[in-house]
Amino acid sequence: MPAFPAMNPTETSAPIWSDSLLLGHAAIDGEHEQLAELIERMRCAAAPEMAQALDAVLQHAASHFAAENELMRTTAFPPRDCHISEHEAVLSTLRGVRARLARGEVEVARRVADELAAWFPPHVQHLDSALTHWLCKLQHGAKPVVLRVGRKPEAALAC
User: For residues 120 and 39, is the Cβ–Cβ distance under 8 A?
Assistant: First the structure.
């Protein structure tokens, strides 16, 4: 019996990305949208493409987290230690899963893709939202305003 239930990589599920994840910080929003797309690709990846999909998520997450961590440090964001620790935990998990995938444990990678999809929206809506509010307050003296007029409707990534 496998350690995790077998999943069909062609199953479709609700997309991770939606306008509800926009925070009003163009650079961070763009990186978040790209990370959500990469996680979706990992969720849909067939076994032979899983390592490449995981590597893309890991590379983007590491770069994005490093940029956010630097913003938190340079602006003395009060809850930065908790936020940075969460980034480190995610990266550590992804690296561990990458090692297991190298040993042929594809279902572990598939399971972590689903866990990332569940983790990502609350992380953005709580921790990253607090960060963008902090950055906007420092720069403009107010919270960000997010206008969603004219955005393309979300489309599910076809697996």
Answer: yes
